[in-house]
Amino acid sequence: MQQTFALDLARDTALGGAAWSGVLVAVLAVVTWIANRLAARAFSDVEQRFNARRVVRAVVWFFGLLGLMVIWQPLGGTLAPTLGLATAGLAFAMQEAVGAVAGWFNITFGSIFKVGDRVQMGGVQGDVIDISLLKTRLMEVGDDSGTTWVGGRQYTGRVITVSNKATFTQPVFNYSSYFEYIWEELEVAIPHHEDWPRASEVLEEEARRLATAEGAKEAMEAVRHRFPVPETELEPRVFASADEDYMRLAVRFVVPIRSARSAKDDIIRRIHSRLEDAGVEVVSTSVVQQASEVWHPVGRAGGSPHRQEN
Fold it and tell me: How confident is the model over 123-168, as pLDDT tens digits?
């Protein structure tokens, strides 16, 4: 009986292969538990512990598959045709999963992004809240393109899951990994007969009041120490251009990526209020393109604000 039991546990029998496979799974489960406990003690940061568990899981899967190949290798001769067909079918069926796993390695070791970064990936923009072996989860933020019902860069409430394979097939935009600021531009159209130089001064003053150029300079210096990024202008500036009817003033300024919408709202309100007080006629750029509608602020000859179709 002992001889029969020993024979059954030999790796060249199906029963033996199954038995050793069970032993391997049990050992790997214990190793995983121990490794996770050690990682919890070694890392105090939640994100570091999270990433450590991901690495442990990937390493265990790798050695688990390698161990199963070694265990079942003696039966390869008798099972070769079946295994060949099964492997081919599995490879075809799991090509997306394989690409996703490769994408995980690309994300993790290529430093494309990490949990907490604001990115655009697979056509979705949001904050990274989870990176697993196959997929990345984003807390979606809106944009101005009309793809979501939220018009600004604020949370929509949806959690979007994107395959890690997208890092190979589409561009990945990272808004916060190295430089947590963004350039915003606000354009105001002023009729030629108005005091557009005064309007330009108002735009620059308000942009300087709002902009965070000092913090952006420090962040840019850190980026330039890592990448060959040329020097760039971070101070607010107003650019002027002219067409047949209007002087177009575009003010460019730097704000933190996560407060861009509130900053833009603040500066628009203040600029319009100050230009109203100065009696400068302002034309909404988007309205000009659609209906050539002019808005007359309080203080102009003719009394209260009114709209006029050209």
Answer: 888 999 998 888 899 998 887 666 777 777 778 888 999 999 999 9
Closest CA to 121 of 163, 151, 154: 163
- The Cα–Cα gap between 201 and 198 comes to 5
138 and 188 both lie in a single domain: no
Range of the domain at 200: 181-309
If asked whether residues 76 and 23 sit together in one domain, one would say yes
What is the token pair recorded at 95? 């090509």
* All residues at 6 or more sequence positions from 8 whose CB lies less than 8 Å from its CB, including other chains: 15, 16, 19
List pLDDT tens digits, range 194-208: 888 898 899 988 888
CATH code, 148: 2.30.30.60
Task: With respect to residue 99, please indicate whether it lies within any of the assigned structural domains.
Answer: no
Stated pTM of the model:
0.56
Which pLDDT does position 81 carry in this prediction? Answer: 61
- The gap from C-alpha 292 to its chain's centroid, in whole angstroms, comes to 37
**CA pair distance 161, 170, nearest whole angstrom:** 15
Does 8 reside within a domain?
A: yes
